[in-house]
Amino acid sequence: MQHIDMNETVISIRDLYKSFGEKHVLEGINLDLHKGENVAVLGRSGTGKSVLIKIIIGLLKPDAGTVKVLGEEVSQLDDVALRALRLKVGFSFQSSALYDSMTVGENLAFPLKRNNREFTPEQIRKTIDIVLDAIGLPETINQLPAELSGGQKKRIGIGRTLILRPEIMLYDEPTAGLDPITSMELNRLINAVKERFNTSSIIITHDLTCAKSVGDKIAVMDDGKFISQGTFDEVFTGNEELIKSFYDYNFIQ
Amino acid sequence: MSSTNDKPDKPIITAKIDGFFLLFYDFSLFVLRFFREAFRPPIEVEEFIHQCYQVGYKSLALVTVTGFITGVVFTEQSRPTLSEFGVTAWLPSLVAIAIVRALAPLIAALICAGKVGSSIGAELASMKVTEQIDAMEVSAINPFRYLVVTRVTATTICLPLLMFYNALVGCMGSYLDVHAHEQTSLISFFDSAFTQVTFLDFSTALIKSVAYGFTIGMVSCYQGFNASQGTMGVGKAANISVVVSMFLIFIEEVIIVHVMNAIR
Ligand SMILES: Nc1ncnc2c1ncn2[C@@H]1O[C@H](COP(=O)(O)OP(=O)(O)OP(=O)(O)O)[C@@H](O)[C@H]1O
Ligand SMILES: [Mg+2]
Predict the structure, then answer these.
(1) Nearest Cβ partner of A86 from B127, B131, B138?
(2) Does the ipTM surpass 0.85?
(3) Can you tell me the distance from the alpha carbon of B123 to that of B221, in angstroms, rounded to the nearest whole number?
């Protein structure tokens, strides 16, 4: 098990607010991610989890509050600095967002080539093989995204972010819409990524099993705020209401 | 905590007119960004060549057919009037002037607006709504340079080529028709055709088609890049790309013709 360094904070969020028109989505978010730690953010659909991590990576701008990633305040960075920071932060989309005109191999090569101009074709090929091997899908290299299953797409999406060797991983609903067995495999993949690539991660999910198996810490989000943070046991023991609402939700699914 | 919102709550004139100016402003920024990004390395050569293939090569068949038909039809329709005055010998030069000055630039541009504009608009819009453009952003790639610069450069370069090709095919169509009726030889047809067409006519045609190509690329990329969420946005972006491109092409036509006539 990787050591969590409580002295080094890689992401620090303070008093974050975000609205879309009249709709208040985030209302005072505070969160710290330490080096080597996996934080699972739990919350129901529509509470603003995706909005939160899109603000972390700078795809959306916050209305108020600060987000510091590796010591830099994201909303203050110019294009060049933001791109430099994004090299260190991997983002796996809820929708996978694979480039559908490219094969799996090309999807992985795309960010790699453009961020490592000095790489030879052999080096690129080798790096792709390593990543495909790590996510367990070496045979899909020449397939198009349309020919893959949902779970495979999620893995390739994760692989495409891993290829840049990020220090931080942000996963948006890695197990949403997948069967329990595939979900377990993805949980295992997330843990393996942490071990093998030494990442610190935020995992957005509404799946209790996923949160329990990948999260060193759980943060529960409701109505744009964190209502509870701590280890899985700390958050869920003695909080019947909360756990019940999530289990009901997971059963209905 | 109140939200900070860019849009003023009360419209300054009316909501619609305000919206038009905001859109115009936003589009101008988009065009400026093109000029800022286009001349900086690295250049996406591979994607640029691919786009030239898409824009240029894939429009060839359509441009050939329409160019040919324009030449033939224009010749046939002009012949009765000219023969009334006994000057059918003027046919080649009349056709050449009409094609170079007006028909070829417009026809090539309208065909490209329909074929290329809609496909660029739809392609970028679907990338936008499926978060593929965001995915480039987060992997530290500049999607504007990869998607917009390559496409706009390709349409700007390919449209003049298509236009000249269209003009040539149109003249060939006209020649075949003239040859069938008046037994003119190829050499003497082109000899008399281009006596009246000046260098200024060619330059005007070139300027026009560069402007039209740029317009088609810019408008469709803008529509695609700013497509609203959902699959509805894809069809809408494709549709608006074509309509707005064609509209702007006609406006530019009027402006360029007037400016060039003033120079003449
Ligand atoms: N670009 C946007 N424009 C307007 N509203 C938005 C936008 N993005 C998100 N929202 C709103 O913000 C709210 C939170 O959205 P978000 O996608 O973060 O939910 P979520 O917690 O990720 O839900 P899910 O589990 O279903 O993915 C939603 O109500 C949505 O309507
Ligand atoms: Mg979400």
Answers:
(1) B138
(2) yes
(3) 9
